[in-house]
Amino acid sequence: MKLRRVVTTLVAGVGSTLPLASQDAASPDAPPPAVSQALESLEAGDVEGAIALLQADTSGQPQVGALLGALYVETGNAEEAYRLLAPLAVSDTADPAVLYNAGRAALQLGQLDDARILLGRSAEISPASPASRELGLLLARSNDCRQGYVHLQPWALSNPGDLDAQFVAATCAVELERAPEAEHFLSGLPQDEEPVQLLWGKLLLLKGDPWGALAMLEPLAEGDPAAIDPTLRRLMAEAHLTVGQSSKAIELLEGNVGDDARLVLLLTDAHYQNGDLDRAIGAIEPLARELAATEPSQIALDPAMVADVMVDYGKLLVVAGRHEEAIPTLTLATRLRADSGQAWQSLGQALSAAGRTEDADRAMKRFQELAAARQTRSLDQAELDAADPTGREIKRGFFLARNGSADEALEIARSEAALAPGDFRPWLLESMALLVLDRPGEALASADRALEIAPDNADGYYQRGVVHMSLNNPGLAESDLRQAIEIAPDHTAAMNDLAILLLSKGSRDEARSLLERVLELRPTDEVATENLELLDGG
Predict the structure, then answer these.
(1) How far is CA 538 from CA 283, 482, 508, 532, 533, in A?
(2) How far apart are CA 203 and CA 238, in angstroms?
(3) Using CB atoms within 10 A of its CB, is residue 367 exposed (0-12), middle (13-18) or buried (19+)?
(4) What secondary structure letter does DSSP report for 111?
(5) DSSP state letter for 244
(6) Secondary structure of 329-391 as H, E, C letters
(7) Of 189, 209, 433, 466, which residue is most buried, by most CB within 10 angstroms?
(8) 197 near 220, Cβ under 8 Å?
């Protein structure tokens, strides 16, 4: 009975057009006799008999191949499964179950690119199907946690008994710093399993509870210190550093970092925190020099990790007074991480100490721009961001869209829309990013979707009003902007844009009143100040 349930899911549960055996045999969609007989054998628990019936069929009908391929996948005969299913999956109208099983066969054969494509096509047709699960697991295990989580999270939420999916979803949620979701998934897993306890430790660190992390992790480190799992060693060292116990972090790490760049960085920080600059430099210098001497295409590390190494090494060289050595290191760091304030600040200090005043000024100016754009968050804001990962990602997306990375902002918007389907904010970000990318028609549809979800939200009306302005629909734009102000009387952005619309049709008095109101609320608003000056000058 269990196998019949599984096979029914594989063949018909993701939208397959394969009819059930009970359908009228006279129907044009009725299953071939071999399929009906095979399903009856499966109902009786005779898998081998079902396969034999299908193998004996010489009709060549696709439904026979689809079911036989599904059974081959289920019984581990991936080569025969793929031989049967791959031709059926070529068509643009291929059944999602066929695509799913062909993807599973490709997975078993190690053909990961084919598996990704086939599972993706199946999941696109039927997002709630097991294809989304398999695709999510494949992407997550291929180091693409963000896209893996987009596919896996809805499945894991709907299938709490699927412990593999729950664990990988929890792992991705921790990796993506989505603490509330990670806690939900972890809570449903066996709590006495070491991998689960490791994830709890990492989550507690993410939530700002290093003492709780240590209480969870230290019992796992009992025994031979040299045999401690590298992940456990790293998490414990991070926790010790966070609470200021640099000596304990050094004890864990010294002689045990190997070629793990994350452990090298932790040991470097531990020595620096412990007041030993020379040992801090000694810990990181070999890796930094090796990376600097290697062609970028030959470096296995993630570029962000390479940048972190160069930033830390360069910063230490500046502190040690080795300014000439620091300059090329930090220059490389700023190329790898153009948004790193620490890299630009340290580079400016090194250039200044080396007498290169103009270059130093440019570097410090860039540092100041980054500092202004990313104002230091308060502890309260950090806590809010941790509790609202979607809100945090949406803010990051708006920052990216306003600073020349609208494509990346669009990716964030679409990921968050999939992860939080009832939240209007991803659609606002998508609309704004599409507008920046000069795709106003799509931006309008996204703004409409935001208002469908949250019909009383002022930002939704404001965003749609801005899109209508770009589409040269002044009447619709004015209506939306007025609605935004009615809902939120202090919506200064809507007031500014409505004032521009009113000026374009000669309503100067109302435009002036709006701009003056903006400056009452925000005396430093440059847009309102400039427009009011133009109005007065005109």
Answers:
(1) 66, 25, 10, 10, 8
(2) 12
(3) buried
(4) -
(5) T
(6) HHHHHHHHCCCCHHHHHHHHHHHHHCCCHHHHHHHHHHHHHHHHHCCCCCHHHHHHHHHCHHH
(7) 433
(8) yes
Q: How far apart are CA 391 and CA 414, in angstroms?
A: 14
Query: pLDDT tens digit string along 449-464?
Result: 999 999 999 999 999 9
- Show which of 79, 98, 126 is a domain's final residue: 126
**69-80, pLDDT tens digit by residue?**
999 998 999 999
Last residue of a domain, one of 77, 97, 126: 126
- Same-domain check for residues 430 and 364: no
For residue 106, give its domain range: 1-126
Work out the burial of residue 411: count CB atoms within 10 Å of its CB; fewer than 13 is exposed, 13-18 middle, 19 or more buried: middle
Tally of structural domains, the chain: 3
- The pTM is what? 0.76
Query: What tokens appear for 465 in the block?
Result: 């009003």
CB 512 within 8 A of CB 532: yes
CA separation for the pair 213, 486 (Å, rounded) = 48
Measure the CA–CA gap between 137 and 162, rounded to whole angstroms: 12
Residue 453 located in a structural domain:
yes
CATH number at residue 501: 1.25.40.10
**Two tokens, residue 65:** 């191949």
Terminal alpha carbon distance of the chain: 83
What pLDDT shows up at residue 22? 29
* Phi, psi (rounded to 5 degrees) for 498: -65, -40
> Quick one: 283 and 414 in the same domain?
no
Tell me if 281 is assigned to some domain: yes
Residues 278 and 414 in one domain: no
